[in-house]
């Protein structure tokens, strides 16, 4: 990343569908790049994020957000998700923040 620092945020599996059951069986993207994640900083502006599956959940980051405070997954009106448990069940859309929609910036 050209010498730039990045801050990552790990989203733990309780967000990844079925009350955390997905961690018991593991998470997968079936070899595809995770692309449905976004992160926001204190300014509450969400940016597309890169993500990788780890042993404790999913680690998410964006070069556009130095200090992420919120993450969301598949949080669009229409999106094809790419995060599953290893039994093939898709993760439900989620967000980690509780900001009112009126407070979010486009």
What's the gist of this structure?
The chain is mainly β and 106 residues long. It has one domain (9-86).
Structure commentary:
With 106 residues, this protein is mainly beta. The chain has one domain (9-86). 5% of the residues lie in helices and 29% in strands.
Number of domains: 1
Main pleated sheet = 4 strands, antiparallel
The side-by-side strand order for the widest beta sheet comes to 4-3-7-9
What class do helices, strands and sheet pairing give?
mainly beta
What labels would you give this structure?
single chain; 106 residues; mainly beta; four-stranded antiparallel β-sheet; three-stranded antiparallel β-sheet; 1 helix; disordered N terminus
Map the helices and strands:
Layout: E1 9-12, H1 21-25, E2 27-28, E3 37-40, E4 46-48, E5 50-54, E6 57-61, E7 70-73, E8 84-85, E9 94-95
Antiparallel strand pairs: 1-6, 2-8, 3-4, 3-7, 5-6, 7-9
